[in-house]
Predict the structure.
Amino acid sequence: MNLKSKLVVRIIQFILVLILVLLGIFAIYNANVFGEGAIIPSAEGVNATIKGSISGANEICVLKDLNYSEENQPSNDELSTWKNNLTFRKTKEDIVLTITIENKSTEESLFVNIQDKSQNITNLKRVVTNGAEEYTLGEKIELKPTTGDGTSTITFVITFSIVDKNYSINKAPYEYIIELEGPNKEA
């Protein structure tokens, strides 16, 4: 090959490599992957309801109510709605998971705690609050017996935030366990 044709081949190779590099940078910069995750309830011998909602995610997630009583446990279909692949929107706004737990018993207290079994995810901040204050994971909170619908509830808010909005996060699972215990187990 003469010098002119070698130069043309080298220029074409350089352009192709440059295009691949730019596509890779674009894909990394615009990735909005969060990962598979689950909220796993653990309850036995309690009379309670768990309700939830998710906002800010790319997907529309509908969480079915989970009703617990001495006779009933949630179905697999109901539990499966609490396992979601959450993806940040391109605007990278926060994803907010709201969980409300209600003690339906008129006689016994309900003890609630949430545990975070998630992997540490670079560039992702997770905050769990109950009301206006940050919740200490694993701390048991007592819900007194109910005196009517909605009188013995607690709401937890789990907020997932991208720390540095200039970068995406790596795909990683999240896992929270919600434990509901009656007073007999607490003793």
